[in-house]
Amino acid sequence: MTTATHPAPRKVTRPRADALRNRERIVTAAREMFTEHGPDVPLDEIARRAGVGNATLYRNFSDRDALVREVVCSVMDRTAEAAEGALAETGDAFAALEHFVHACADERISALCPMVSSTFDRHHPDLEASRERVESLVKEVMGRAVTAGQLRSDVGVGDLMIAVAQLSRPPAGTGCPQGDRFVHRHLQLLLDGLRAPARSVLPGTAVTVGELRQCGTAA
């Protein structure tokens, strides 16, 4: 009588801690340099700032588009985390929205638009997932403030995000860091204009994130 043998369980290969750290360093360096100089900054300069060799960069990201996509997803994921933080706040719903907007500006989301080139795959599954997560969370943050009677009801997620992008930072590579000192001041002026009751009727209809993408002004 033979006893059935079972194959030994396969070991799941996990990235080493140092490999994960290298990838994080590359993404952080790329985010900084894309913001400072635009999406065409040489990849070897990004590797140098990250403190890794070119081979390590290409082992993680096969080409520029792959790295740009990871940076865009990283910024959107951090924006989503800021929205989750706002939703976790108790008390004043508009104050939570304000905290989100200021945190969102610090992520330099205005640098996303020039990073999306004509050859960039805007429908990559990773991008779609990050985008949907951000849109859903921001809609919830705004919805709470509308329900509380604190946010005017005629603005959409797209209205808010394009205003934050336009006011938060100069476009990547413009060499105008002096504008940083005005960012939160101007954002607060915007937020005061979003409070209910509205003082005027807005022309047109609320803008969605989908409409922004059709116009090429969102990632």
From TrEMBL:
This is TetR family transcriptional regulator. Pfam families: TetR_C_43 (PF21597), TetR_N (PF00440). It comes from Streptomyces griseofuscus. PANTHER family: HTH-TYPE TRANSCRIPTIONAL REGULATOR BETI, HTH-TYPE TRANSCRIPTIONAL REGULATOR RUTR. Keywords: DNA-binding, Transcription, Transcription regulation. GO terms for molecular function: DNA-binding transcription factor activity; transcription cis-regulatory region binding. The keyword Transcription regulation applies. InterPro entries: Homeodomain-like_sf, HTH-type_TetR-like_transc_reg, HTH_TetR, Tet_transcr_reg_TetR-rel_C_sf, TetR_SbtR-like_C. Residues 20-79 form the HTH tetR-type domain. The keyword DNA-binding applies. Residues 42-61 bind DNA.
